[in-house]
Amino acid sequence: MPCEFCDDTGWKPVEDNGVRKVVRCDCKRTEAGQMRLASANIPKRYQHCTIANFTAYNESLKKAAARAARIAEEFPAVAKGLFLEGQPGVGKTHLAVAVLKQVIQTSGARGMFYDTRDLLRVIRSTYDPSTRATELDVLRPVMTADLLVLDDLGAEKTSEWVEETMNLIVNTRYNQRRLTIFTSNYKDIPDDTDPNALLFRIGHRMRSRLHEMCDFEVLDGADYRELPTNGGPEDLMMMWKMRSKSLPSPGRSGGRQARAQLREPGLRDGKADLKWSGGRAGRG
């Protein structure tokens, strides 16, 4: 059925101070948003995610959801991106994707989603002579997207090549002031000897950039993947309280030796196997 305003021409007539003219029809803006949403690389598991259907049952989740909503509503007039930190299953990826979807749909911006490990795998695949795509083909949309979501930062196997590649992406977006949303399971504490610290995983240079680029929000909650089929917010609240009581104190075992062991020799050119262990996709 043709658009009732523009008859599918893409231009609709309007009157401005007695002067009749044509402007771009909203249907074309919506169509462009839908096309860009389809090419944003959002996994099927998260395509239903919106800020409205995010279950915020405690103050940390409410605060993070409010921050995410503000970015989505005010884009592109947003100075800083967002870094969502928390344990697996608390909803980090849900919120990140929700912002990405809303921004693309309402503004027609170019948006992109990547799990960090998958992005590195795709970049590495371009070194195969049988692959027609080049490294630049992969990196260009990542570096130039109006809004980029990098999911699960720090989960990748550490190596010189990984650090150099990730620093190139982050530094390029930092210099160009392009908005980025990161999620990570690792705590942002100033300790480069703790294997469970973000600093240990990504290094001082990238962490410094992230603090300039993003507002940090810590999501504290239950693992949504463990929620029974018929469970609701009350069950999540109970699971969260039980989880908080049972969590061990953060340890500092491993130290610098552990970081050294995470490195694999011969990875400077990115051609060796990153050897990361996959996990279940979920609500992040």
Sequence-ordered SSE layout with sheet pairings:
Blueprint (H helix, E strand, L loop, with lengths): L10 E6 L2 E6 L1 H13 L20 H16 L6 E6 L5 H16 L3 E5 H10 L9 H10 L2 E5 L8 H16 L3 E6 L13 H5 L1 H10 E6 L13 H14 L8 H8 L22
Parallel strand pairs: 3-6, 3-7, 4-5, 5-6
Antiparallel strand pairs: 1-2
Helix pairs in contact: 1-3, 2-3, 5-6, 6-8
Task: Compose a concise summary of this entry.
The chain is an alpha/beta fold and 284 residues long. The chain is built from 10 helices and 7 strands.
Number of helices: 10
* Cα gyration radius (Å): 21 Å
Element string (H = helix, E = strand): EEHHEHEHHEHEHHEHH
Looking at the chains present, what oligomeric state does this protein adopt? Answer: single chain
Task: Note the overall shape.
Answer: globular
CATH architecture classification: 3-Layer(aba) Sandwich
Low-confidence stretches: 249-282
The separation of the N and C termini measures 40 Å
How many distinct domains?
A: 1
CATH class: Alpha Beta
**How much strand?**
5-15%
Q: What is the fold named in CATH at topology level? A: Rossmann fold
Mean pLDDT: 85
Number of strands: 7
SS-based structural class?
alpha/beta
The helix fraction, in percent, is 40-55%
How does the major sheet shape up?
A: 5 strands, parallel
Looking across the biggest beta sheet, what order are the strands in? Answer: 4-5-6-3-7
By CATH, the superfamily comes out as P-loop containing nucleotide triphosphate hydrolases
